[in-house]
Write a structure and sequence with these properties.
Order of helices and strands of chain A: EEEHEEHHE
Largest sheet of chain B: 8 strands, antiparallel
Mean pLDDT of chain A: 61
Mean pLDDT of chain B: 89
Largest sheet of chain A: 3 strands, antiparallel
Low-confidence stretches of chain B: 1-5, 263-270
Strand order of the largest sheet of chain A: 1-2-3
Oligomer: heterodimer
Radius of gyration of chain B: 18 Å
Number of strands of chain B: 13
Number of helices of chain A: 3
Shape of chain B: globular
Strand content of chain B: 25-35%
Number of helices of chain B: 7
Largest interface: A-B, 42 and 65 residues
Distance between the termini of chain A: 51 Å
Distance between the termini of chain B: 24 Å
Helix content of chain A: 25-40%
Structural class of chain B: alpha+beta
Helix content of chain B: 25-40%
Order of helices and strands of chain B: EEEHHHHEEEEEEEEHHEEH
């Protein structure tokens, strides 16, 4: 395993230095080498890397759904929304999922 | 799941609070008059809490025309819950620090919508309904299941395409799904902590039991950006799914992984 030290960066929480640990050509860990005065924030910076690894590229999906969640649409925008189409189908007694 | 004829026994779309509220009520039907009572309640909430109306209680309070002690218990209760949510979100949701359409700095709409739909759901349950879905302008409260043995299929809108979905969640029982984004109204969502618009995310969806909280948390998550993950992870019973402008997605620890989203309800139904 090889380790690469990054430059020390001044953040709003204080100076932070990270180290990338690479094994067989893949990044396996990022360690925070220098914490800003050991306050709570430094721990949070460290934990941040974990949930961000749970990600994927967004792809458009099509499926039969009962309802759709999205940003609040006005009554005007509702007319062209998927939810409006679903409501029309329900009102017509259509076969739905 | 094989398609079957919908067991819809009551379907209604009401335009209230400046949005469309869709009711999809499955068997058993609530007793007669229940939906009428629910709609009356929503129009009452609109008249009381609207930041578009000049004479609503919230507008008059925001302008300083009503003392806090003279507010109705209902409005006091909502404002107290909003203050609690400001605390829980570290200031990312703050109804006293965002410009409202009425020119005041008080806009609890981001909580009131979900809160009023939760009350509407309770009224339907009191009326005997068990299985239903209410969609209030894109924020959703469900109960029970659409048909025996089935789960509600909830699409999350793709931020770039009005007619496409980013993902589909399956939920059963008591569950709320709220999404915060700017693609619909074009308006900025302000970060109340700094007083400027927030831009990191294209959309933030929060899943949990209560739609008032989920609504406020979705706004907070949108404001927090990717930091929303570490913020929401310790919040019991609420999970987030974020989409960036680059089309990357990110989710909290208990939000179902893509391979497990069919079982979404398992983590969400706590």
């Amino acid at each position: 395993m090889a380790a690469y030290d990054g430059a020390t960066i001044d953040t709003k929480y204080g100076p932070v230095q990270v180290q990338a640990q690479v094994q067989n050509g893949s990044l396996v860990a990022v360690a925070v080498m220098q914490y800003p005065n050991g306050d709570g924030k430094s721990v949070r910076i460290n934990q941040r890397a974990l949930p961000e690894l749970q990600s994927e590229a967004l792809t458009a999906q099509s499926a039969t759904v009962h309802t759709v969640s999205g940003a609040t649409y006005t009554s005007n925008a509702y007319v062209k929304s998927l939810q409006s189409a679903i409501d029309k189908a329900l009102a017509a007694g259509a076969v739905v999922a | 799941m094989t398609p079957h004829r919908a067991d819809v026994c009551l379907h209604h779309v009401e335009h209230v609070m400046g949005m469309a509220v869709s009711f999809d009520i499955r068997q058993p039907a609530p007793i007669s008059g229940t939906l009428t009572e629910v709609l009356r309640w929503l129009h009452h909430v609109d008249a009381t809490f609207s930041t578009y109306l000049d004479d609503s209680e919230i507008t008059r309070f925001g302008r300083g025309e009503i003392a806090i002690d003279d507010l109705t218990a209902e409005v006091q209760d909502v404002l107290l819950q909003c203050i609690e949510l400001t605390d829980l979100t570290g200031g990312a949701f703050d109804v006293f620090a965002v410009p409202a359409p009425n020119g005041t700095q008080l806009d609890p709409s981001g909580f009131v919508k979900g809160w009023s739909i939760e009350r509407a759901a309770a009224m339907l349950e009191d009326g005997g309904a068990i299985n239903f879905c209410i969609n209030a302008g894109g924020d959703i409260a469900v109960r029970g299941e659409p048909a025996p043995g089935d789960a509600w299929q909830i699409g999350i809108r793709h931020p770039d395409h009005v007619d496409q979905l980013a993902l589909v969640l399956e939920v059963r029982g008591t569950m709320a799904i709220a999404t915060s984004a700017t693609y619909e109204r074009g308006a900025h969502i302000m970060d109340p902590r700094v007083g400027s618009p927030t831009t990191e995310l294209a959309s933030a969806t929060v899943v949990g039991r209560d739609l008032g909280i989920a609504d406020a948390y979705a706004t907070a998550a949108f404001v927090l950006g990717l930091d929303a993950i570490e913020w929401i992870d310790p919040q019991p019973g609420y999970d987030a799914y974020l989409i960036t402008h680059d089309g990357e997605t990110c989710w909290s620890t208990d939000f179902p992984h893509p391979s497990q989203r069919v079982a979404a309800a398992a983590s969400a139904r706590r």
